[in-house]
């Protein structure tokens, strides 16, 4: 039996791979304009890093961790998201000391042991970014606007941006208590998951997708009424500044996000076009996280875009059509001597950044021409013994079917010729 990839893990080929590269390229260029630099961290970390940061009672840690024990008995996990690893790296490499304000982005695979379905995989990819060292709410707005720009730049201009404030360690406990009491008094209408959550992580019930819970949440107490003055001021500035930057958004006090480290600003970018898997990006502020993981008291904020969902959206909306790269020149050589010379012609063209593909399988001119046609190449260079003896090669324009004999000595001028 042939070996297959693991469930929920995908291979990515051409032509889709070109869309992936384009999206990554776009992110790199845009984020650089805002001062973000790439950081690459290992995909494998100590399990404890995620348990401590994301939170023991979150669905990610409770149900979705790709964890295992190594040969020495150490509990490890494939990263389910990027922030925890970057914070770990930021602390370990003492970046806070060398640079009080730091902006990082990362692109790579994440792992969650979820039930695979459309838009939900066990290995998926995120483009994420983090800012350390800025408590000013204007950075929250700048970051959200940058994500907005990122999507707009890819032709995705109809995402909904939803914002919430989750309060802080001063005001959230009061709200959590009030909210728990509300859940307690409606125990019988809660789904099984939320029933369990009322003890450990009641706020998760806010974004439960079960019908009865959703109805119940309509009447539930709102965090809005419990925010302390500082959190309220912070949130107001985020909203005002985001408005100034020109991003449209709405406030949704039910956004809690599935990670415990968030406080104050949290946000989601959603689409109505991908069915149930509607979140394309999410993020928020995590001021206590660096300290929680043993670092200095540095504020932070970050976001992550789900690449599979974004690319599905791009393909669905046909904003970018993936195309197979066609060689500009296709080399057809017959005989050893012609092949020798063909390699020289190809190298000379490649030095001028021209994409050349040589046919190495050719049995007959006819078969090779058919392949050139299939590769949708605009130019073909043909060489056989006769041409070698005459010191020339044939240049064929595949569009007009016109052929010209070109002296070997004029190979340097070939780039100009095929551009016109
Ligand atoms: P969801 O609500 O869909 O479970 P999430 O809240 O768990 O998403 P985050 O942890 O915020 O997701 O991750 C950020 C983004 O990564 C999501 O908005 C989504 O686009 C993408 N994502 C998360 N989990 C998966 C997955 N299993 N497969 C594909 N993409 C995913
Ligand atoms: Mg999830």
Question: What descriptors fit this protein?
Answer:
alpha+beta; BirA Bifunctional Protein, domain 2; Rossmann fold; 16 helices; elongated; binds adenosine-5'-triphosphate; binds magnesium ion
Please give a structural write-up.
This protein is of the alpha+beta class and 420 residues long. The chain is 39% helix and 21% strand. The protein has helices spanning 16-33, 47-54, 59-63, 83-92, 95-98, 137-153, 172-184, 192-200, 211-218, 229-245, 289-292, 307-317, 336-351, 365-374, 385-390, 414-419; strands spanning 37-38, 44-46, 66-69, 75-78, 102-111, 123-132, 160-165, 250-251, 263-270, 279-285, 300-306, 329-333, 356-358, 379-383, 392-397, 403-407. A hairpin with a 5-residue loop joins β3 and β4 (75-78). The protein is elongated and about 95 Å long. The chain starts with 15 loop residues before the first helix and ends with a helix. The protein binds adenosine-5'-triphosphate and magnesium ion (MG). Residues 81, 112, 114, 119-121, 124, 126, 258, 277, 279-282, 304, 306, 308-309 line the site of adenosine-5'-triphosphate.
Topology:
Layout (H helix, E strand, L loop, with lengths): L15 H18 L3 E2 L5 E3 H8 L4 H5 L2 E4 L5 E4 L4 H10 L2 H4 L3 E10 L11 E10 L4 H17 L6 E6 L6 H13 L7 H9 L10 H8 L10 H17 L4 E2 L11 E8 L8 E7 L3 H4 L7 E7 H11 L11 E5 L2 H16 L4 E3 L6 H10 L4 E5 L1 H6 L1 E6 L5 E5 L6 H6 L1
Parallel strand pairs: 1-5, 7-8, 12-13, 12-14
Antiparallel strand pairs: 2-4, 3-4, 5-6, 6-11, 7-9, 9-10, 10-11, 14-15, 15-16
């Amino acid at each position: 039996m042939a070996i297959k990839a693991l469930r929920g893990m995908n291979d990515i080929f051409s032509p889709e791979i070109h869309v992936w590269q384009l999206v990554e390229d776009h992110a790199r260029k845009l984020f650089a304009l805002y001062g973000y630099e790439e950081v690459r961290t290992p995909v494998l970390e100590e399990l404890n890093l995620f348990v401590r940061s994301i939170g023991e009672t979150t669905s990610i840690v409770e149900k979705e961790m790709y964890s295992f024990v190594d040969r020495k008995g150490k509990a490890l996990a494939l990263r389910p998201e990027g922030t925890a690893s970057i914070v770990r790296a930021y602390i370990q490499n003492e970046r806070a000391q060398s640079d009080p304000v730091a902006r990082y982005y990362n692109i790579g695979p994440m792992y969650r042991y979820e039930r695979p379905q459309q838009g939900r995989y066990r290995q998926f990819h995120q483009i994420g970014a983090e800012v350390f060292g800025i408590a000013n709410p204007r950075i929250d707005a700048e970051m959200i606007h940058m994500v907005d720009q990122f999507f707009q730049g890819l032709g995705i201009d109809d995402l909904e941006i939803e914002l919430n404030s989750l309060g802080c360690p001063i005001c959230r406990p009061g709200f959590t208590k009030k909210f728990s009491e509300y859940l307690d008094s409606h125990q019988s209408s809660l789904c099984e998951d939320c029933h369990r959550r009322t003890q450990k992580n009641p706020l998760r019930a806010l974004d439960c997708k079960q019908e009865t819970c959703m109805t119940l949440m309509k009447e539930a107490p709102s965090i809005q009424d419990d925010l302390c003055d500082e959190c309220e001021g912070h949130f107001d500035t985020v909203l005002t500044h985001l408005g100034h930057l020109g991003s449209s958004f709405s406030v949704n006090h039910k956004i809690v996000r599935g990670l415990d480290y968030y406080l104050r600003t949290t946000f989601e970018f959603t689409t109505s076009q991908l069915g149930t898997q509607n979140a394309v990006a999410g993020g928020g502020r995590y001021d206590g996280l660096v300290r929680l993981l043993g670092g200095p008291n540095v504020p932070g904020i970050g976001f992550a875009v789900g690449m599979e969902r974004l690319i599905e959206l791009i393909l669905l909306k046909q904003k970018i059509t993936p195309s197979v790269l066609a060689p500009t020149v296709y080399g057809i050589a017959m005989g050893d001597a012609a092949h020798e010379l063909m390699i020289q012609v190809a190298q000379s063209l490649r030095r001028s950044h021209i994409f050349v593909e040589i046919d190495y399988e050719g049995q007959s001119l006819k078969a090779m021409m058919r392949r050139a046609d299939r590769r949708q190449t605009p130019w073909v260079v043909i060489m056989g013994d006769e041409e070698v003896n005459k010191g020339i090669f044939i240049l064929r324009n595949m569009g007009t079917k016109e052929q010209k004999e070109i002296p070997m000595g004029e190979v340097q001028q070939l780039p100009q010729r095929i551009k016109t």
